[in-house]
Amino acid sequence: MMRAMHLSVGLAGLLVGMALVSAADAQQRVYELRTYTTNEGKLENLHARFRDHTMELFEKQGMQNHIYWVPTEGEGADNTLVYIISHENRDAAKKSWQGFLSDPDWKKVAAESEKDGKILAKKPDAVYMEPTDFSPQNFESADEPRLFELRKYTTAEGRLPALLQRFRDGELKLFEKQGMTNVAYFTPVEMPNTLIYVVAHKDAAAMKKAWDGFRNDQEWQQLWEQSTKDGKIVIKVDRQVLRPVDYSPMK
User: Signal sequence: where (predicted)?
Assistant: First the structure.
């Protein structure tokens, strides 16, 4: 009986330990936001390369594809691809990219896809990000394609914790109240005083209605006043409205 009890306690301890290791591994996962700018008329060539080859080669190297977008408006609407992938950790990311770039299959694809001219106009922009403790990391696809907003908030020096606390205390719930879907919230690894997040809307009309309702919500106004009593928090907002491409895992 005592032996069975010891075994039971030992198993319980093992399970707790495994849960802690699993939680630690989840915290180590790093996400990568990448933006590609193509030469004029080359966006469809880039789409074809990702659709037919690149995503599969990413997975071969241990990367996880999450979502691929194009802007719906603005200067980059005809020549920009934005996407999010993830890696087990930063070391894995480095190893995966080294493996990808040296992969003979990738080299062959890259050469064949650029027979008629170079696709990218400049080096891709890459931002490594870690999920916040309140991020839902909701990369599940919906039944119908949606519009997404990729929003970047830059805070005054030292004010990022106050911004994160405001989102943690109620801003996410207020977004949901207005019909938005919280997708993911990140802090960039090498960009201090910055929050990057993604929300989704049914369509453009729903997006406008949601933000109008949010700004006029008394709960939001009270939350904002409470959070800024020690000074201004956000000093700059960058925003992209994006739609998923046909090959995006998430829509």
Answer: 1-26
φ, ψ dihedrals at 236, nearest 5°: -155, 140
pLDDT tens per residue across span 137-170: 878 888 888 999 999 999 999 999 999 999 999 9
Cα–Cα distance measured from residue 102 to residue 67, given in angstroms and rounded to the nearest whole number: 24
In CATH, the architecture of 29-128 is 2-Layer Sandwich (3.30)
- Contact between 127 and 216 (Cβ < 8 Å): no
Contact criterion met (CB below 8 Å) for 37 and 120:
yes
- Give 202-238 pLDDT, tens digit per residue: 999 999 999 999 999 999 999 999 999 999 999 999 9
Which tens digit of pLDDT belongs to each residue from 5-43? 443 434 344 344 434 334 444 457 999 999 999 999 999
- Rounded CA-CA distance 154/191 in Å is 9
Q: Is 34 helix (H, G, I), strand (E, B) or coil?
A: strand
Distance CA 67, CA 170 (A): 26
* Integer-rounded Cα radius of gyration of the chain: 21
What b-and-e string marks burial along 14-28, b requiring 16 or more CB atoms within 10 Å of the CB?
eeeeeeeeeeeeeee
- The domain spans of the chain are 29-128, 131-244
20 phi, psi to nearest 5 deg: -65, -40
Output the pLDDT for position 18.
Answer: 36
Tokens representing 123 are 């080096």
- Residue 128 has what pLDDT? 98
Give the burial class of 134: count Cβ atoms within 10 A of its Cβ; 0-12 exposed, 13-18 middle, 19 or more buried: middle
